Amino acid sequence: MTTTNAPADALVERPSLRRARLRESLAGYGFMAPWLAGFFALTVGPMIASLYLSFTDYDLFAPPEFIGADNYARLLSDPQFLQSIKVTVIYVVLGTPIKLAAALGVAMLLNAKRRGLGFYRSAFYAPSLVAASVSIAIVWKAMFIDDGVVDSSLRIFGVELGGWVGNPDMTMPMFILLAVWAFGGPMVIFLAGLKQVPGELYEAAEMDGAGRLRQFRNITLPMLSPVIFFNLLMETIGSFQVFGSAFIISGGTGGPAGSTLFYTLYLYQRGFRDFAMGYASAMAWLLVIAVGLITILLFRTSKAWVHYQGDAK
To answer: Which of 173, 182, 172 is nearest to 130 (CA)?
Structure first.
């Protein structure tokens, strides 16, 4: 006669299972430890310090002096600060949609079956790998400076712009062109999204007599809306952070006439040129809050125009 003693066995095994799970947890935290150390030491810690400094008068050489919300109050009456907001908002509002439209257009062209697609995809994606580099900013400045390649080429066709870098009216189009030129990143994401659109939808639409424009409006855009939302969110956040190209092309001055005084460039000037670290910290936190509010706004509005598979809307 055999007897079963399952509850007793479970009681015997339970401590060993707990020890195994504890070892797994410790191993997991051990692997995460370098990342956690970097996150708290290089991200959370500096953010907390920056928040404190934003309420102080601090010049790097003397101990910070607490002044309450004076830095934030002074920002509202600072014409340079307001100019940096104006330049950055224009860049974000104009540059982001144009860049996404160019990326989507090229992605649709590359989605068709034709020879040499691998080469074309690589060729269009390559600029996005180097667009944020200092070397490209230097090349861009050399191309658009007075009597540069672009200026000389346009002069052949009778277009006299008098240079782009030194013309306050042409600096913003120059920066937007640089942003649009680097559309490779969102283009690849759009291309991946287009591959997921079922071909049966277009076949059914053609049988119903729908033209290309109507197919694009009623099939492509709704099916791509999650991808469009993702690209819009990431490109908007990235546009607020443009710095390297503005610093190189303007020589760090934000000129001519403040036309390239982007928000991050002015923040750099106040922090590392004027050594007004408290003031720069206040600017940094206002930027964080603004980007956060815009992100929340995009998520709220996405409920009206982003369609997910299986969504009942």
So the answer is: 182
Q: Is the pLDDT of residue 2 over 50?
A: no
Hey, which residues does 65 pair with through a beta bridge?
Answer: 57
- The pTM of the full predicted model, rounded to 2 decimals, is 0.86
Q: For residue 256, is the peptide bond before it cis, meaning its omega torsion is within 30 degrees of 0? A: yes
Of 258, 249, 279, the residue nearest 267 (C-alpha)? 279
Place of tokens 């404190």: 52
CB count in 10 Å sphere of residue 59: 14
User: Nearest 5°: phi and psi at 57?
Assistant: -105, 105
Model confidence over 275-298: pLDDT tens digits?
999 999 999 999 999 999 999 999
Let me know: does 144 contact 87? Beta carbons within 8 Å.
no
Indicate the helix (H) or strand (E) that contains 57. strand 56-57
Model pLDDT for residues 192-207, shown as the tens digit of each residue: 999 999 999 999 999 9
The Cα–Cα gap between 178 and 248 comes to: 13
Q: What's at 55, amino acid-wise? A: F
Residue 80 to residues 168, 233, 254, Cα–Cα distance (Å): 16, 27, 10
Within a 10 A sphere around the Cβ of 21, how many other Cβ atoms? Answer: 10
Tens-place pLDDT, residues 61-115: 999 999 999 999 999 999 999 999 999 999 999 999 999 999 999 999 999 887 8
